[in-house]
Amino acid sequence: MTISDVAALAAPVSDVAATRRRPGADQKCAQRSARIRHYAMTPPTFFAVEYAINPWMDTSTPVDTHLAMNQWESLRQTYKELGHTVELVEPVAGLPDMVYAANGGLLVNGKAVVAKFAYPQRAGEAAAYAEWMDRHGFRPAQTRYVNEGQGDLLVAGAIVLAGYGFRTDRRAHDEIAAAVGMPLVSLELVDPRFYHLDTALAVLDGTTIAYYPPAFSEDSRTRLLELFPDAIEVATPDAYVLGLNAVSDGRNVVHPAAATGFAEQLSDAGFVPIGVDLSELLKGGGSIKCCTLEVYS
After folding, report:
1. C-alpha span between 44 and 91 (Å, rounded)
2. If I label 172, which of 71, 186, 227, 277 is the partner at 20 to 30 A Cα–Cα?
3. Catalytic residue positions?
4. Which of helix, strand or coil describes residue 10?
5. SS3 of 179, please?
């Protein structure tokens, strides 16, 4: 079954999913607490699929830049309506993937690490994001080994979950842990369709994650269940529309609209799912989280 075949199985949902909650879900929702977040985003002004560096990219598929911009703007407005701070990073001509701002680096506790990209097509993005960090008072550290920012580095409470296997070099994990002063848990990705950690795992709050088990090695699955025994396991149809490429403020979870099953799981767990359609940007292999660089406080 191809990615497009599975995507066809899922229908879009509305802005805020009006799913029927199971008994107890409302009580769980009342216990969830949203926290104002700080995001950086880059408009898809120059977005295109000019090369193929992940299984989602097909240079023969046309890209509608106008539609991509409208969908991206809908995401930005969603964040603003939730009360979050959204800053813009200026896009650079010739860097069509720069819209995937999460890959720019890791910013946490006043410290920053800038990305070192695996592919030369994206190398120029590192300088652009480092400049933005500098202008905002950060002194971004650089790693010797490849790291692709929050694509593979997700903060979960007091730890950093770090993916490797396709893009980020595991040897960069020690460098990153030292730079930000936080313990880091290495997780091996084994399915090329889930080439970044943020395509296979979403941090919902400091103690809760959702993930797609087949994307990880057996050892990494075991480690995740040790750390997060109540983890939400997402089914294949939702994973194959990058449903886990989501952003949570602790209560509201902004996710790809096509991931309807995941929306129901979130609702049952007491979260508020908010579906946003980024189908045009999915052509480049990214969605909600990919477009969102969080400045973790």
Report:
1. 7
2. 227
3. 196, 290
4. coil
5. helix
